[in-house]
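In these records, each integer encodes one residue's backbone shape. Here is one protein:

___
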Amino acid sequence: MMKSTIVAALIGSAAAFAPSPVTQTSTALNGAFDNEIGAASAELGCWDPLGYVTDGNQERFDHLRGVELKHGRIAMLATWGFATTWGGARFPGCEDFPAGHEAILKMGTENLIPVLLTAGLLEVTWKQKKGSFPGDFSATAFPVGFGPYARTEADMIDLRTRELNNGRAAQMGILGVMVHEQLDGKPFIFFDKFEIYTPFGN
């Protein structure tokens, strides 16, 4: 029953990952941000059933979009990390660490502190570029962004939309694998593990 409920919830959320529409249809849920990237669909526009930004507050919208992007980026890294370590990949010196949720419980304080310090360093190093779209950290000395792939404004919009939607999918993905690991020890549901690119070897 629990599995069926989770699968149904994941299927029902798929509409959130649809590409950004070119035209919008007016509905009661639409508001000032219907033409922003990542709109759920032409019918829903900027889907905001709880009314967080229906008043058109640009500052609040930018803050929430930045938070969504940050969580999406972390979730994409988490999904990739979960999959690679479950498949056997390890950093040198970490060969004895278990995969999945158990790794957090057994990695020890001495290994957890560097992870937290690295996360904190990234948090204070990468800064939002003033006057640009949420999530644009190109104002920092460390090179970040889409690089040569964003040759035109259309390229930039396309890449931003892909990043946003991939981040949304990754948030659902990492939640799904963590839940299924706790349910039956099989985070990927249909198979025990899969072969994946492992730069540090198995």
Remarks:
- The radius of gyration is 19 Å.
- Residues 5-30 have pLDDT under 50 and may be disordered.
- The chain has five helices and no strands.
- Residues 2 and 183 are 9 Å apart (CA to CA).
